[in-house]
Design goal:
CATH superfamily of the largest domain in chain A: Response regulator
Strand content of chain A: 15-25%
CATH class of the largest domain in chain A: Alpha Beta
Number of strands of chain A: 12
Low-confidence stretches of chain A: 179-187
CATH architecture of the largest domain in chain A: 3-Layer(aba) Sandwich
Largest sheet of chain A: 6 strands, parallel
Number of domains of chain A: 3
Order of helices and strands of chain A: HHHHEHEHEHEEHEHEHEHEEHEE
Largest interface: A-B, 48 and 47 residues
Oligomer: homodimer
Shape of chain A: elongated
Mean pLDDT of chain A: 94
Number of helices of chain A: 12
CATH topology of the largest domain in chain A: Rossmann fold
Distance between the termini of chain A: 77 Å
DNA sequence: ATGAAAGCGCTAACAA
DNA sequence: TTGTTAGCGCTTTCAT
């Protein structure tokens, strides 16, 4: 390339990086050579000396629309900038360390991670080398930033709503997980993940009313896992009058089972969390907690860019929540 | 690293790559040093000499669940292999060249692209350097592989179904797009993209019955674009008795407008294409054409790995389609 | 303002 | 079987 333009490599490098010390005519010469040769700098070579202009996003469960919304907003924010977003999808949060490590191995300039199952220690160590923003977990770290919805108040709102409607037999639809210990890590801090907080506040509210909490475990975070679990639940003795799902993807699965059984919101009400786009569809109309997924994605990118820019003090954001009451919750027919 | 283990760099390299010519004791020594130092090879440095063990997936519109399913199956196939999948998301198919170029700049070992707006010439040129698999477009290329659903027969099935139900005023819900010309490219081959095929077969079937085709253009490929367009349509004189949506994301948006207007399938039937997961939800129950998105993703990865492995003859796959008749289509109340 | 040259961490060819 | 060495294509420092 340099040879073709009849200039030094350094000159080409400077022009590309818009660096100081190039005359206008030099710039012209190099730029026309670039255009003519259709020259593209190799990111890998640049990575050897510095940055890759690549931001990594770890996504557990790409089928979860809450995650898609975050990816969408990150894409929107980054469009037209010099940074390229790459998503490392995994099958479940337990594989989070693999995806994050993989992104680090590829020397991305920053990482945004959505609620992976990794220890804070492990992440702290990584964050010493590379900017990291954590979405979802309520971590307190000196090295990386955190953005989470206000799970406690969101859950409170759901519980108050259901109780006010007259529900007493309220089940919490939970996913398994958070069992895995990443190698060489200390134990996970308790209650840092979003579902743990929602589960805890649910239990507290039930206890406060003298009601027995009913935790229904799904086999995983897929819609289908929830459908199966709720189908079983409906066929059992322990049928609740309302189900609070740990997140909307589970709630949608629950609604499948309920609709399939020919039941409606007065038989079994359903509330979710995240307010994914389909929740507002008039044919679904799922009561859910909005935690501003789109804004979370925007903020995450903003924070990681700030860190790339030099910030070192950690930032912790908590997004306000708002309960969207829709037709999937109603007063119970048989309280 | 090499120094710490007291061996040569070449030895380390060989152990990592499982290459020929390492004694068991050498392997042991190196491996324990790797474990102890928590050593991770830098992908960028490897890229300078060869491969990156990274596969790129270009996704237009991450909010489209058909695309998510493809990403999901690709993730599943690649889990546990030495390859890492990275997704380059864009806002619309018109930005396809940016995402693909960006992946190429990052020297991924292979690229899977979902129906981007790029010329076949441009792609052919790129495919000379890097394995490419195209999903969606019915391209005929000597250099890259193609996987597409059988759009013609799928559309035929939808049209026959609607006509058999008694519909005559059938609109095609189309998205704009495919207008953009990538720089330095020849014109796009006509009819290579999925929507063009569906639109064409729709028009043919309408003409065959002596009916005027009714093309309804949305502002884009988002669910919301379809909702707006259909809301306008319902309020106009030209209200059809059935809408065939170019793909399911548009169909879901159409159903929003229809449900919101208090209408049902007998007023305005809706059929879509792709059979995204939510289509089978009992509360949505969208008639749609299944083109096996999950299998498409699997095959795409298989093909790109085959190419990395040395295959050079192009492969073209066409997936069979199956019409899933559900409750969103019904005989018209007012034919 | 420009160019020469060192070096980033690997792999591959070759020498020992 | 092992180690030495020459690059891959950039960025950065340092002369000019």
């Amino acid at each position: 390339m340099a040879a073709a333009a009849g200039v030094s490599r350094a000159a080409v490098s400077k022009v590309i990086r818009n660096a100081y010390g190039v005359s206008p005519q030099m710039r012209d010469r190099v730029e026309s050579a670039i255009a003519q040769l259709d020259y593209r700098p190799r990111i890998a070579a640049r990575a050897m000396r510095g940055s890759t202009f690549t931001l990594g996003l770890e996504i557990p469960q790409i089928a979860n629309d809450f995650h898609s919304v975050i990816a969408e907003s990150a894409t929107d924010v980054l469009a037209g900038t010099k940074y390229q977003l790459v998503i490392a999808p995994i099958r479940n949060p337990e594989e989070g360390d693999l995806a994050i490590q993989s992104l680090a191995d590829r020397q991305v300039d920053g990482i945004v991670a959505i609620a992976p199952v990794v220890s804070t220690d492990w992440l702290d160590q990584l964050a010493a080398r590379i900017p990291i923003v954590m979405i979802g977990h309520h971590d307190i770290s000196a090295r990386y930033d955190t953005i989470a919805g206000d799970d406690a108040s969101g859950t409170d709102a759901v519980m108050s709503h259901l109780i006010d409607l007259g529900h007493r037999r309220i089940a919490f639809l939970d996913s398994t997980g958070m069992q895995y210990q990443p190698p060489g890590s200390s134990e996970m801090s308790p209650g840092r993940d979003p579902l743990a907080v929602r589960r805890r506040v649910y239990s507290e509210r039930m206890h406060a009313l003298g009601l027995p909490p009913q935790l229904v475990r799904t086999a995983g975070n897929m819609e289908e896992d929830a459908r199966v679990a709720v189908a079983d639940l409906l066929a059992s003795e322990a049928r609740p009058s309302a189900i609070f799902a740990g997140h909307d993807t589970l709630a949608i699965g629950a609604l499948r089972a309920i609709a399939h059984a020919g039941l409606d919101a007065q038989d079994v009400s359903v509330a979710g969390f995240d307010d994914i786009p389909i929740a507002s569809h008039p044919m679904i109309s799922l009561t859910s907690v909005d935690q501003q997924g789109y804004a979370i994605g925007q903020e995450a990118i903003r924070l990681v860019l700030e860190r790339i820019d030099g910030r070192t003090e950690p930032v912790r954001l908590q997004m306000p929540t708002e309960l969207k009451v829709r037709r999937s919750t109603a007063p119970p027919r048989h309280p």
